[in-house]
Amino acid sequence: MNSKIEVYRFEEPDSDEWDEFVDRSCNGTMFHTRRFLNYHPQDRFHDHSLYFQKKEKRHAIFPAASVKAKNGDILHSHPGATIGSFITKTSSSLKESFDLVTSLVKYAQDKKFSGIKITLPPNCYSEPKSNYMEFALLKIGFTYLKREVSSMMVLPGTIEETMNGFKPSHRQAV
Hints:
It is a single chain. The chain is of the alpha+beta class. It has one domain (5-171): Aminopeptidase (3-Layer(aba) Sandwich), CATH 3.40.630. It has 6 helices and 8 strands, in the order βααββββββαβααα. The protein has helices at residues 15-23, 34-37, 94-110, 132-140, 159-164, 168-171; strands at 5-9, 46-47, 50-54, 57-62, 64-67, 74-77, 87-88, 115-117. α3 (94-110) crosses α4.
């Protein structure tokens, strides 16, 4: 696959632009913002977050850190974020997912990382729901280190409607 995606390392002066990208994305969460990631002590993680550009436009971001391992440094979706992977403005097509993963692998190889570790977010964090990125990762050769289960419950329209669904005695505990 010829991805035509350029990869750049995040630099601290770009924090506001990064957070705006997360806020306008289809799958970013507060855990991916620089406001959250910078909350951690500076010496806790060696930040190695990335930008992915396509046709000179920001296409995706990848919150990451360089983590020491037995066989060399690993590019790890940011350990301070709980969940990771690519954050994109719009839902990625299957081809775009393959292009992003291919670009990430090439970048990691060029920078001499010994591996890549990604903590995928549950599908409920993305709109629309898709497992294209997971599929691309598996097809390119990534494997699961562990699998976790998650569930989601859709609540009625307003907080008041949700609270009215609880017994009065339980409402006080919420």
